[in-house]
Amino acid sequence: MPKGAMGVKVKFHKGSWWVFITHRGHRRAKKIGDKETAVLIARQVRERLAARDLNLERQPPVPVETLKTYATGWLKSVSATLKASTVRFYTANLHRHVLPLLGSRPVASLSRADCRELITATRARGLRVNTVRGITRTLSVVLSQLVEDERLPANPALRLGRYLRRGDEPKAVVQPLTREEAALLVTIARRTFRGGTRGSC
To answer: What pTM was computed for the model?
Structure first.
């Protein structure tokens, strides 16, 4: 057999059935027992070796890195370099707001639309503009690190200010006092004022 050739043979040797394998200059032999099993195994080995030579073997899938996976590792790495209060700020924003919505997204697919979705979702929950700014700033810091690590070509969370207008803040509703409430307030004020006057004499 030429060097490098592939061969799988079934032979009866020393009272047992064996499978002899020659592949790429290497030889191996495996004692099987009965002929039927040896023939079956030999066929399976031939198929696997042929698939390997043709690069047809199934490769294990590469695990997809999600934002949650990356952000969890990132938090651990910055804990030693940032102030404890800053780490708590980032941790709270990530776990309460960012990761529940975007945590399962692959980091390589994160887009500006995802960032706008986060803003819309947090504003829909009634969070104030300053709170949402802190949330988006946290996301932006993580995405900037992804860019630096060459996992993203650009940070899609930059310059989102136009989506955070203060004019969208809900206006406070003024509830005027009823006549009864106004009268009670005046009465209490008069009693308090008179009492204070007597006490000061």
So the answer is: 0.56
